[in-house]
């Protein structure tokens, strides 16, 4: 089965995701594409650390760590989680389906204030609606642990 057909089975025709897992699967596929708004050469899932668990990590072209939090609708919760990821990640994002992103975009200033990006997912594509600010991680040892997570996955 081709990847796009497999991905389509996890959501309805209107790109309303049925599970967070299907959202993460789409995001995983999208960030590895050449024309991705957030290109990553490697991905890893569920990085656990003392302050939480990140849904997905991406390793950028310059070995920058990208941390992604996905939610079906609770954008504020995802934003709080993404903010915590700044302790180890160079770039932090919230990824939401299009409908939930409409609400989140009304609070764009909150994302900008915390330096968190917003990715809108739907219909087998992604749009970077809010660009994140680059962080200098506060815990470089945790950044190294995140990079090692790619090898261990």
Q: Classify the secondary structure makeup into a structural class.
A: alpha/beta
- Cα distance, first to last residue? 24 Å
Radius of gyration: 14 Å
Biggest sheet, spatial arrangement of strands: 1-2-3-4-5-6
Mean pLDDT: 87
Secondary structure: number of strands? 6
- The multimeric state of the shown protein is single chain
Contiguous low-pLDDT stretches (5 residues minimum) are 1-14
Major sheet, described briefly? 6 strands, mixed
The helix tally amounts to 6
Helix content: 25-40%
Coarse shape: globular
As a percent range, the share of strand residues is 25-35%
Order of helices and strands: HHEEEHEHHEEH
Q: How would you characterize the overall build of this protein?
A:
- This protein is an alpha/beta fold and 153 residues long.
- Helix content is 37%, strand content 27%.
- The protein is built from 6 helices and 6 strands.
- The protein has a 6-stranded mixed sheet with strand order 1-2-3-4-5-6, sandwiched between helices.
- Strand 5 and strand 6 form a beta hairpin.
- The protein is globular and about 35 Å long.
- It starts with a helix and ends with a helix.
- The model is unreliable at 1-14 (pLDDT under 50).
Key words describing this protein structure:
153 residues, alpha/beta, six-stranded mixed sheet, disordered N terminus
Task: Map the helices and strands.
Blueprint: H1 3-8, H2 20-31, E1 42-49, E2 52-59, E3 65-70, H3 75-84, E4 91-97, H4 98-105, H5 108-114, E5 116-122, E6 125-130, H6 140-152
Parallel strand pairs: 3-4, 4-5
Antiparallel strand pairs: 1-2, 2-3, 5-6
């Amino acid at each position: 089965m081709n990847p796009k057909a497999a991905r389509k089975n996890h959501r309805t025709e209107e790109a309303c995701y049925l599970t967070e897992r299907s959202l993460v699967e789409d995001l995983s596929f999208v960030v590895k594409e050449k024309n991705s708004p957030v290109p990553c050469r490697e991905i890893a899932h569920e990085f656990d650390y003392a302050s939480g668990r990140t849904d997905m990590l991406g390793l950028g072209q310059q070995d920058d760590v990208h941390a992604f939090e996905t939610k079906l609708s609770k954008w504020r919760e995802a934003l709080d989680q993404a903010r915590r990821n700044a302790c180890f990640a160079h770039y932090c994002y919230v990824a939401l389906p299009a409908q939930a992103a409409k609400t989140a975009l009304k609070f764009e200033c909150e994302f900008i204030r915390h330096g968190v990006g917003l990715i809108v997912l739907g219909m087998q594509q992604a749009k970077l609606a809010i660009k994140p600010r680059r962080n200098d991680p506060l815990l470089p040892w945790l950044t190294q642990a995140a990079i090692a997570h790619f090898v261990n996955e």
